[in-house]
Design a protein that fits this description.
This protein is α+β, with helices and mostly antiparallel strands and 468 residues long. The chain is 24% helix and 31% strand. It binds flavin-adenine dinucleotide (FAD).
Length: 468
């Protein structure tokens, strides 16, 4: 279940915070977003912390496309928010790409130029996006093929996210880095609390992928989390490309050179996080057997989508910033948001963040927002009312009149509290990852109840019964 990016690379390791610290700027979360931001602020007094090892979240599990072509988003943003918002969306992501090209001149990491394609069997679906490209003056090509139509953006890129992160980490010697250091809460002074220590700072930016700990502006209800599955299959291509079908179910493709062979990364079988697809890899292998019978690697990833297709980037309280909600395009957005946030912090230029401010409520005035929150309520009620007793791992059982999730291996039986500590939704067992996942707001816990990710800051209460 390891992604292709983690196969041939070893990142530096960093200590765990073992005493109280203070700094000017603290960055919480060392995925691509946190690392890029720390690099841009490297001349300041910065601490970068992660609850896990660095580059162990979504940034290390995606398909490594670096592009401003984000599904068919432009005609939707143009319609909802108008020319300026759609145009700056494009420009911010193009600037992010230019920044990576600049780094590539200085540092050694894999960056491949390629064209990216949207494709559809239905020409009309792509026509609207093409018209948006024309309005926004985005260079493109529109082609009719026998059975499908394509809309391409030229001079986009594919990269190796961990190699880029590694290059930046090696070139920010003043930044103090700490791994296995989870921030549990903060106060308005601004002191951040780990289980044993504190970090006091003047400004904090949470680059934690999900809006952990934040209930401001009802952020917890303003995104949905999706899981997706990726296969790496041998594929003898001539020219590198990235492609995405906008028909449902959507398929994402990109070529990659790996160990001197050529492969295709295929991403599909999306579903709401926590509501499990029982045979995702089998389905995906079946659908792609004409490409190759062989699969080199397979893995899963998840990401957060907002209801108006714009991320949340900005200050939620004085000197406390969040950035998340990249709608599956967090490579360019991680860099774009870091460029915007570093400017906001260094030069106090907040205007550029206006379109993405968490305070906007325009994303709530959408059918998907209402639908998603009705679904969340329905799932919550359904699991509360209709729980079953099954013996296999993942069953929900009654023990001492309380509901527990059941897990058993050779050595032990583990009963975990089945209620998510975040808002009490009933957790679902993911048999592939052996995790307990929350379908409401995407918290995830190990089979033994240890918190892995998501809005909650707590692990699950559990009872372990050792076998003789
Ligand atoms: C299947 C799939 C394919 C994708 N492919 C692409 C692609 O090709 N191109 C693209 O642009 N985007 C892609 N994405 C989206 C992209 O992966 C994400 O949007 C992006 O990686 C998010 O980066 P991040 O740094 O915010 O998050 P992460 O990489 O998840 O980093 C967040 C970090 O915060 C840490 N953290 C969380 N809470 C705490 C806490 N309380 N204390 C301390 N640390 C904490 C976590 O441990 C983690 O290391 C894809 C997404 C999916 C699901």
């Amino acid at each position: 279940m390891q992604s292709i990016w983690k196969e041939n690379i070893q990142l530096n390791t960093y200590p765990t915070l073992d005493k109280d610290e203070s700094c000017q700027i603290c960055i919480v979360g060392a995925g691509l977003n946190g690392i890029v931001l720390a690099y841009l602020l490297k001349d300041y007094d910065v601490i970068l912390v992660d609850q896990d090892t660095f580059m162990n979240g979504s940034s290390s599990m995606n398909t490594g496309k670096l592009t401003a072509q984000h599904n068919d988003c432009y005609h939707k943003i143009l319609k909802k928010y108008g020319y300026n918002v759609a145009k700056t969306y494009y420009e911010h992501n193009q600037k992010a790409i230019e920044q990576v090209i600049q780094w590539h001149k200085e540092y050694n990491f894999t960056l491949t130029q390629c064209d990216t394609y949207l494709y559809s069997k239905n020409e009309d679906s792509l026509q609207k996006e093409k018209e948006a490209y024309e309005t926004l003056q985005i260079p493109h090509h529109f082609h009719h093929h026998k059975t499908y139509t394509t809309l391409s953006m030229e001079q986009q890129y594919q990269f190796h996210p961990i190699e880029l992160a590694n290059a930046l980490l090696q070139n920010m010697p003043k930044v103090r880095c700490f791994e296995h250091t989870q921030i549990l809460k903060y106060d308005t002074n601004i002191t951040l609390y780990t289980p044993n220590h504190t970090i006091t700072c003047k400004q904090v930016i949470f680059t934690t992928h999900s809006p952990s700990m934040f209930n401001e502006y009802f952020l917890f209800s303003r995104y949905k989390a999706y899981s997706s599955y990726i296969l790496a299959k041998p594929y003898a291509y001539n020219k590198p490309f990235s492609a995405l079908s906008i028909d449902q179910p959507s398929i994402s493709l990109r070529t990659i050179d790996y160990n001197q062979d050529k492969y295709l990364l295929i991403c599909n079988e999306d579903h709401r996080f926590g509501v499990h697809n029982t045979t995702p890899y089998k389905n995906l292998k079946h659908k792609t057997q004409s490409i190759s019978q062989e699969t080199l690697l397979q893995w899963q990833n998840h990401d957060y989508e907002t209801f108006d297709l714009l991320p949340f980037i900005g200050e939620i309280k004085e000197n406390i910033y969040v950035t998340f909600g990249y709608n599956l395009w967090g490579n360019s957005w991680s860099i774009a948001s870091s460029l915007l946030l570093s400017q906001a912090i260094i030069n106090h230029h907040q205007e550029q963040l206006y379109n993405y401010r968490p305070q906007r409520i325009t994303d709530c005035l959408t059918l998907p927002f209402i639908q998603n929150n009705i679904d969340t309520l329905y799932l919550w009620l359904k699991y509360v009312i209709l729980f079953h007793y099954h013996k296999p791992n993942g069953s929900i059982i009654l023990f001492n009149k309380k509901k527990y999730g059941y897990y058993e291996d050779d050595k032990q039986k583990i009963l975990v509290d089945i209620h998510c500590p975040h808002l009490g939704c009933i957790l679902q067992y993911n048999k592939y990852k052996e995790t307990w996942d929350c379908p409401c707001h995407a918290s995830s816990f190990n089979y033994d109840g240890k918190r892995l990710s998501g809005p909650t800051t707590k692990s699950l209460a559990h009872i372990t019964i050792k076998k003789e």
